[in-house]
Predict the 3D structure of the following.
Amino acid sequence: MSISRSDVEHVAKLARIHLSESEKEYYAEQLSAIFGYIDQLNEVDTTQVEGTVQVTGLSNIAREDMVMECSQDVVQDIQNQFPQKSCDLLQVKQILSDT
Amino acid sequence: MELHTLSIAEARKGLDDKQFSSVELTQACLARIAQRNDEINAFITVTEELALAEAQKADKRIAQGEVEMLTGIPFGVKDAICVQGVRTTGAAKILDNYTAPYEATVITRIRKQGAVLLGKQNCDGFSHGASNENSMYGPVKNPTDTTKVPGGSSGGSAAAVADNQCIFSIGGDTGGSIRQPASFCGVVGMRPSYGRNSRYGIMALASSLDTIGPFAKTVEDAAVLMEIMAGHDPKDATTVADHIPDYRKKSQTDIAGLKIGVPKEYFSQDGADQEVQERIYQNIEALETQGCSIVEVSLPHTKYAIAAYYVLMSSEDSSNLARLDGIRYGVQEVQDTLYNTYSNSRAEGFPEEVKRRIMMGTYALSAGYYDAYYKKAQKVRTCIAQDFETVFSQVDVLVSPTSPFTAFGIGEKSQDPLSMYLADVLVSPASLAGVPALSVPVGAASNGLPIGLQVIGPRLGESCVLQVGHNIFNNQ
């Protein structure tokens, strides 16, 4: 499996990770080797096999959808983590453009 | 008496007999950390003030006779597990300033008993690695030989126990991150069955594989910790409500009559160290002498475990780590647009291995590749789990090396990610199957480095794993 530099650019864009030009080359080479190794999964005949999504055997674990109490201290602790804020509100960059 | 070298059982006895106080025991561990942390680098954050305050409280509890197993015992926690009010970085700069506003359920259970938190332990960034070289706070060194890695990802937690900087540690095991460092550092480490211990409060790597488990100086201590950590948690819907056995008592029962499986694929790895294999065989012979029957078994899909693991783990990982964007918490790299703020915060704040795995997972899940990689790997996971189911209809536990070799050199594999991934070849299959496994130290190789023996059991078969492990541990 060969993963090109443009594949890496595409994936890095999807993953929101800025890469330098040299990193793109570097990761293209490494990911090619890794997926080359992963390709050996094709040796396994899985035509009659169901995929495993979980191993507990549990199903339909549900709980009441209730609003739980949260102390003001915890609210404050969470707000204190905001990198940018206005008063006690989380401040983010503009998401929708004017145009 | 060197207090910091004690096991949980020994420290409990000393505290209860008033030979020393929890403050004295805690001070001994803090002094050991202060003396060794520059070199070993096992702790990212030391909570000295908190530890001494908790130790004083524990001494009061002991004086009032309100003693539980861990009251007054100092411990450390992998920095990928949240402790409320304590800096929790995941060993990545994107969370350099993060203080957890909530706490992992297993840590709350341990702290409720009055255990004393010494600090947060170094690990591979967001638990990505098998050598602890992927920490943005510098590598951890193996206490036996500081030119060697301690293993990973929970390398600081293993090294701290091996170096007697704490009485026990709590780490996480997704694809081997407790067992492999336990093996490299010469301590006991247990991965529970998936769903046995709550995952609430661990920084998620791969949600269908993550587990939290103990590092300890003895198997008895590991059994004690498992009893306290195990059990259903409403905050983790994948925890099972099954009865929690008396692990400590059961681990001390006679092993005669047990059937021990020896998986032939675990002894035929390329690059495996002969000396490691011979040591494991010697221990298997000792089990036979004590009345166990030894059966050679086959797990034919073992060779595909690493490939399946890396597809599934990186896919889940790329989704889980999407939440780290520098917006609501962590370190933000302010840029002109929201997109650039995301992509630069992530570029600066993640270690290289994290970026690599996010890209692998994003690629495996992207349009056109999902069936070929992700779905295929899920099916191979079924084959691997069925291998275990089949052998556990014939034997009680499996015994193998934990790692095909002893600790490798710092820098030896860090330039070649694939060879690093292959270091987990004997630990990732049990992870995929969700079964419990324990690494027990079985002495040193001629190079002086510890050798680890792995005991793997059927789902929720921790008792038998600990029973065989305890016996092997006591025979060293």
